[in-house]
Protein: MFS transporter
Amino acid sequence: MVLLVNLARIVFAPLLEQLISVFSIGEGTAGLIVTLVWVGSALPRIPTGWVLTRVPRHRVVLGTGVILTAASAFTAAADSVAMVAVGALLMGLSSGAYFVAANPLVSELYPERVGRAMGIHGMASQLAAVIAAPFVTLALTLFVEWYVVFVCLGIAAFVATVVFYYTAKRTNLPEAGGEDRNLLRAALNQWRIIALGIVILGFTGFVWQGLFNFYELYMQTKNIADATAKNMLTLIFAAGVPAFFISGKLADRLPRVPYLLSILVAFVIGVLALTVTRGLIPLLVLTALIGYVIHSLFPALDTYLLDTLPDENRASAYAVYSAGMMVVQASGSSVVGALREGGGTYEFIRAVTAVVPFVGILPAGGLSYDAIFTGLALGLAVIVTTLLLLQRGGRLPQ
Structure:
């Protein structure tokens, strides 16, 4: 289930070039379509948290499978950019609801080894990211038409939903969270932990969203062949498979907050290094390192949150955090697309900031990918530095 719901979010990235060609759209519009997937992933998270105060977690997970099946069918039938955008939004809805329900469920199934359990669950999710580009390439090679990708995804989602239904019927499920009946009270009680999670993953995810969704096109600007660039997108996700498992185990053993901040520092350094690197071999090495580092963050942060939040607040507080961080990061792709393509919004910003040092030297027609990701990494560096200072002063919740 987790492989399929994550594939629904990731599959648009390797399809961007195809969608740009088929529907004659620019990078800005393509970035907006990808953003809608993640907006869709953000929208149901708080409502799902409220539903979880009344409905067992496994039933919500089952419902997400039904939504994914229907959303895949709708997207496959799309014959316009607007329909593709709506389909992207609907597919995002299934993933948002799934993770809010499934992550607390997994942590409660294995309370003595939360980090390891979240690492394995995340590793299964990451396999979707690894197979996304090869899956799209194979589908386009065999059937040519882009919509076949969503036909296959819908069939697989239907089968997985049926299997999950019969598996849940035969499983003794945990009773943890029985006192979690007030979403607002949970959010108020755990606001410091929620805020820290939103800041860490919201702003880091903003940069990551823009980076991986345009990674193939970015590598092409560094004189990497099209096929190799597509494979590099696969590599950046493949590096995350061991990262989930190893980082989940480390999160059980290391001080949680210092470990999280060390990952953020490594990610900022990696992105900055990427912007000044040329040559296939150095780019391959750096791609793998960035992929490992960013995917180490996800199980580490989930372990910190789900193992720290008490039973009576866990699902509700996690839902609020999940929605908040997703709203912050969702627009990363559209921002990168707009900065790259130029256009009305970019030119307006260029005109307004014409008198501002450094910002006021924005070129006409958009920015290079190197310039965009340098700016995003430096902005994230400011946030990480602030968190490090707060940690040193003992101001962050442990």
